[in-house]
Amino acid sequence: MALFTSTLVIVPANASPSFSNGHEKIERALERAQNGNVDAIWTQHNVLVIAIEKDHFNAKSYAKSVCGFLLTNGFAQAKTKIVITDKDVLASKNQWSQLAERDCK
């Protein structure tokens, strides 16, 4: 009989998961490129959530362009999923309002 133990780690609500420097550079590059109109966060090593101001972007087109950016910047083998959410709904209601999703291939 095998015993399994687990450790519960409590992370503050405002803390994001920590991934590679490359992941962090992608987040910052996307946020800087759009002058504060987007917030990006990796929720898993291969899932990037981007909150956009939906009046400034076409969510599906933006997800496609982010995939292209990832593929040319070292994430070609990562099989990354892009999830686009509404920044205003997230900020005002603390609710997830998904606008688009794309698997980068």
Description:
Strand 1 and strand 2 (47-52) form a beta hairpin. The chain has helices at 21-33, 59-71, 87-93; strands spanning 38-44, 47-52, 81-86, 98-103. The radius of gyration is 15 Å and the shape is globular. By secondary structure, the chain is of the alpha+beta class. Helix content is 31%, strand content 24%. A four-stranded mixed β-sheet has the order 1-2-3-4.
Topology at a glance:
Blueprint: H1 21-33, E1 38-44, E2 47-52, H2 59-71, E3 81-86, H3 87-93, E4 98-103
Parallel strand pairs: 2-3
Antiparallel strand pairs: 1-2, 3-4
Provide the succession of SSEs. HEEHEHE
Task: Figure out the total of helices.
Answer: 3
* Low-pLDDT windows of residues: 1-13
Label the structural class.
alpha+beta
- Terminal Cα span: 42 Å
Give a short account of the largest sheet. 4 strands, mixed
Rg, alpha carbons = 15 Å
In short:
The protein is α+β, with helices and mostly antiparallel strands.
Keywords:
3 helices, four-stranded mixed β-sheet, 31% helix, 105 residues, alpha+beta
